[in-house]
Design a protein that fits this description.
The chain is mainly alpha-helical. It contains 3 helices and no strands.
Length: 83
């Protein structure tokens, strides 16, 4: 049980601590610094999507592959419109 709590407490605190660190760093960063932080965050999301999520979703041969691919393209298109 001690091991469980030693693992679960840092895991649950990681997101809130990361949010506060990011908030304070983004408050200090302006101009090129803010753009670099935004690019780093965006690149991280794209890397995880392209290397982990998308290949696993499209790996199985089934009729849902085209539906998943369509949803993927629609999502990228909508995010491009927002940008």
């Amino acid at each position: 049980m001690k091991r469980f709590w030693r693992i679960i407490i840092p895991f649950t605190l990681a997101s809130p601590v990361g949010i506060f660190i990011g908030y304070f760093i983004s408050g200090m960063a302006q101009g090129l610094g803010a753009a670099a932080l935004s690019a780093l965050a965006s690149g991280t999301f794209l890397y995880v999507a392209f290397m982990e999520v998308i290949p696993r979703e499209l790996m199985h041969d089934s009729h849902q592959v085209y539906t998943k691919l369509g949803a993927l393209l629609l999502g990228f298109g909508l995010m491009s419109l927002l940008a």
